[in-house]
Amino acid sequence: MSLFSSTNRRTFLRNGTNALTLPFLASLLPAGSRALAEQSLSFGAPKRLLWMAMGHGHMEKHFYPTESGRLSDIALPPGWGPMKKNLNQVTMVSNFTNAENKQPHEGTEAVLTCVNVVGFPGKARHNSISCDQVAAAHLGQETRYQSLQLNCENGDSGNGHGGVAMSYREDGSPLPGFASPLEVYFKVFGGNVSREEMLHTLKQRRSIFDILEFEGSSTKRLLTHDDREKLEDYTTSIRDIELSLSREEEWIDIPYPKATQKRPPEGMQGEPEIKAMFKMILAAWQTDATRVVTYRMPDAGLLQSMEISSTPHTLSHYGSNVSLHELNLKRTTKWMQLYSGFIDQLRSAKDPLDPNGGTLFENSLVYNGGGLRTAHRTTNVPCLLTGGGFKGLTHGHHRVASKENTPLANLWTTMLQDAGAPVERFADANATATSIWS
Amino acid sequence: MNANSNIVASALTSCVGSFSSNMAIDTKVSAENKVVYGFVIIFMMSMGLVAQASQGSDVPEALSAFLGNHCIDCHDDAEASGGLNIQSLDWNLDDPHITNIWVKIHDRIAAEEMPPEDASSLGKVERGVAIEDLAGRIQRFQEKNYAKHGRSVARRVNRFEYENILRDLLHDPTLKVADQLPLDGEVHGFAKVGTALDVSHVQVNAYLDAAEFALRRALEFPVKKPQLQSNRYYAREETRMWAGKGNPGWARFSLALEGLEINDRYSFEKKGFDPAYEVRAEVITVDNTSAELTGTWRESTKSSNHVGTHYLADNNEGTGTYTISWKAELPKPGTYEVRVSFIGGKDMARKAPYLIRHAEGETQLTIDQTVTPTIENLWFPLGRFRFGSIGNGSNSEPVVAEISLSNKGANGWVVADAVQFVPLDNLEKENQKAQLSKEQASTAIFRGAYTPFYYGFEKFKAPIRGDYKVRLKARSVLRKTDYVEWEGEKKPRHYPGLVLDATRRYPTPVNDRIFSGKRSEPVKVYSSTLSEPNNQSMLPIGMFEAPPDAPEVFEMEAFFEKGAMVKLDCMRLPSPMVPAMPHTIQKIEPEGYPGVAFHWLEVEGPFIKEWPPASYKALFGDVPTEQSGRHVIAVPTHPLQEAGELLSGFMTRVYRRPVADAEFERFYLYAKQLLEEGETFTEAMIATYSAVLASPEFLFHCGEPGELDDFAIAERLSFFLGESIPDESLRALAQQGKLRDSETLRREVDRLLEKPEGRRFVKEFLDAWLKLDEINDTDPDRELYPEYAGDWWLVNSMIEESRLYFADLIAGDRPARNIIDADYTFADERLARHYGIPGVVGPTFRRVSLPGNSPYGGILTQASVLKVTANGTVTSPVLRGVYVMERLLGDPPSPPPPSVPAVEPDIRGATTIRELLKKHREDASCASCHQKIDPPGFALEGFDVMGRWRENYRSLGEGSERIEGVGRSGNEFVHFIGNAVDASGVTPEGDPFEDVLQFKELLLENEEVIARNITEQLLVYATGAPVGFADRDEVSAILEKSRASEFGMRTIIHEIVQSPLFLRK
To answer: Quick check: A227 and B153 CB within 8 A?
Structure first.
């Protein structure tokens, strides 16, 4: 098989150069991406999507405002301290519930898929496509990566995320992504392997998968229906890998953008790691490496870097333990501080793809939350929104959905639609979320 | 109509008859009765009594009618009592989730738990007919399914099996790849079941990476065989003995150096010296009997820590009229440390005024005599002063020194006993003379290892992976605290209230006050590379006990990774995690601070059995090697031919059965293609081997519906008891077709259990069954449980007990009831202390007998189990109850209905968990489950979060007694003794128990329940399929065959392997 047989990438590129040249494109976009970007920009700046989640949620009294209204007018819980200057840039929504999440210890596994992971017939545990992957299919065609997944360290290590990933493909297979800022850095800016090494690796991998995909040999051994299903899973996996190899091959001759920041060190943990990941999200967007990102955040790592020895799970069982209350507040405050810092950066980051010279903030839709409230509750999960991409949403309010347990999928539907993905209803959505703010 | 009812009436009579005769023996009812059931239903339907039972259109009519009559009232769409909605429950047995619900419905009705007595008038006959009908339907469905697909779904290997396979295959016992592979899905807690072991691109990619990583390790060796060497590394020649990432300043309290010049920047200014030298110090002591007195002091001998026949005391009767003056004739001028003795205690003078006349003038000091004197409980240092004329070093005329004390403003009992002068010039001078040889010199460690503090010899790094011998020379020592100049610029910031001595110096453990230890100290020796995260259990080498007097040499066998260091954990010693420890150390160990002095490390090795190593031979046979950088490459003479031969051998080994030609061709052609494209032989083979190790034939277990063939039996057996692919012997037996022979199977089971790999089974099975792999998921709260925080020894010993105990149950074919109770267990010193068993000293595990009134004995009350069922702060009867039901009694409760908030214990101590649960049970929908869950949970309330016996809870808010101190991780803590524990309860059968002892007795009344549960747990593990409804008869058969051995654990394993459940897919 030729390495570059299946691509229509070059056609794309040629068209790109014919498109009108937009002078405002920042120089940091590599030539290839610039061309692509220019083409799409005749329709205005592309939307960027980001979903961030922690496993166990925040303690109620520190995080959930008791009244609705303008955030600057109502009494805010103590965890909101660091958000003061960005109150007008965020929206807090109450009453979202992921009714399909039956797993009170696993906050992230189903947060974007809105399915019951133990409810699939014949499977002990399974998943379905996550909304970010729906978005990626529509918004990810022109970027080096359809989407990027940022993750915490291998395994769950007590974060309460569940599963191994936040993003899942259509067949329910997980996309765990990258657990360190350095890995993301290499994905965005390249630089860890030469083109030749890369070609060699791709070629070798490709040839391995060619023979692994070889059918017929296995069917003799795996005869029964259930067993065949297993084998099909296997074959699908191989195809999945081949698809991603194809994409890598298509992009191999398109140079990586010039690095706009220093290479993050190895072995980062907790607060510095989270800050570095935030920077990488901005870099990925600014260089148009991708437009869709999910971040499975390292809550346990953050606690460790704060020298708090309790795990997120222990913190979620605070009961009447005053010292656990204090630790909870410390953590919530830290998360809010990090979040507010991220909003600052979004607001000051120019969007090189915006014909009107706007910022990334203006063109993004960012969800920050997770699938669990405090003490393993799956109702009224944390939901903070920021970014100017939400249609008709004026930030700066605590908005309460009129119905308790409004499907979280309503919000996903709205985010997909607002970002330009032609989706009618995602998962168990029964409406869009726009009615909550219009 | 009339005719119909007559038939029904007579049929009912016969039905009752046949029931009463059958019930006692078997729950099976004759076919005749099913017909009767049908009649009953038809009759009732015709009377219009049957409500619409279920919207699931497929529920069989008769069943639907029964449910409509007896269940739907509560279990409908609106109420869904206990989380069960029968009205909307589909009759879809294809879905195991739904089947499980139907089985549960069957079991609850059969056990007469449902419908509740007060809600229904279900007769015995109708009940029997209904459960018979339901059972038959599920049974028939599952049997049909088994015939078609087999009980188990083809499963892939899990990540631990993948690691073990590579270890076995490559003779690489310390290879670590499980962490690189994604987490496996579990059924009933076991990562052994096909439906949960998903395959995705993530998995396949990870297999390729892991395989390549492992294969390349097999090439990491020099062509030339390394020579056997023996090197000694003297402790005092190490640049440093600590390897922690933490604040280096903390290390100074952890190390002391003895003899020789000190080049360690974290050592004290003052050098340590030979303990024997202390005798030579010419200490001058003046007792109160030789002192000048004014006033009428009382003579006392009430406290024993005094010098001479008695001491003097005054209860502040005068204000300065009582005085005492000690005069000493010092042999020569110089600097002396002045020490006074004064008993100490709470009624003593808070402000005892001392006056010291010395060469520079007079110093007045106010001493708090309530403190315990710091040196040997006797002497309190006032400070260091110069006596005699200054600047005249050669003057050696005797000098008179004078110390006085009065009762002025003393505020409490002033004690006057003795004064001591310790000549320091002399000591320091003599000390320099007393240089120790490298052999005698040592570096001592005064703490346990705990991330990020770990200690070891860093000059040794293993040159190559392999076997070595390690020798350590060590002895135990005691270091006392003293008041010395703080070396840092500032007072430690964490302890603003730190007590200063008279001259504003700090109590600090010092190196010139090192003595022989009072007891031997256990040391755990382990290895890891410098860059690896530290974990004592990572690669244990061995343990020894450093003796208190003369040092001894201890030899251990070790397996090192390349680059591994030898690390040391003085396991009994505290592991402070907070800085500024001097005064906290005093609180932990007032007698002096124990440590272990290490003299040297000697490493002999590598001991090489074959070269090139076995791991190379496993991949490249006899193909010659050539050096290429840090590794070797294989250089064959006829690459294509040798590739074929090697590949064929490799595939036969890993595929667990004869390799089909087409299967071989596929990989052979791949290797060939790579070679033809110009890849080197080594690279081509690594790529091909990796592909084999990611191929479905390798990843998935073989076996077709129906009877397993010999190869599939070998595989199943080997993955059950060895967690890996079959060994040579099993492969040979499979090849010869002997594995369906019952006696052969028996011999093989015995052989596999005795192999070292049998330990893998014990570890992995217990990790999954008892969730022991979760033991470190929570930390005990440092405020409430200061004695556990930072204690690796305890946690490791807890796990070790469970493993030894379970292995012994199998080895000794001991009865399954020992899971609940026994009069023995296995313990080392730490666990024995935890359990309150006297007389167990040292880190070696041994079998210990337990007295009849001990709550310990049996897995139910092992500390490991009690730890994993608690979170770090509190115990919850609910969590423990659910665990016991699910893991030990085989009756897993339903998950709580979604809307009910969890019951969280109140650690302020105001409300008891019992009161909270009682309120919870008042809700009828909670009560039905909690009457089963709560009793085991209540019985285990007698144990705290780490499994230690308690009479009272500890509380952070309220309580009868305030407890404060310093925990073993150096933290200061305060908690209270709270409410008394009430561990009584009533079983669902109505039997009351007072405590866990009585509860155990009640459980032991039905041994079969315990045996059935462990049988089923092992079956899931062994066969990779949950025990279905249709398997119940076979399980009963296994139990019958084990009954004669009192359900012996080894017998059960044998009978499982002999059972059709094991021998069929």
So the answer is: yes
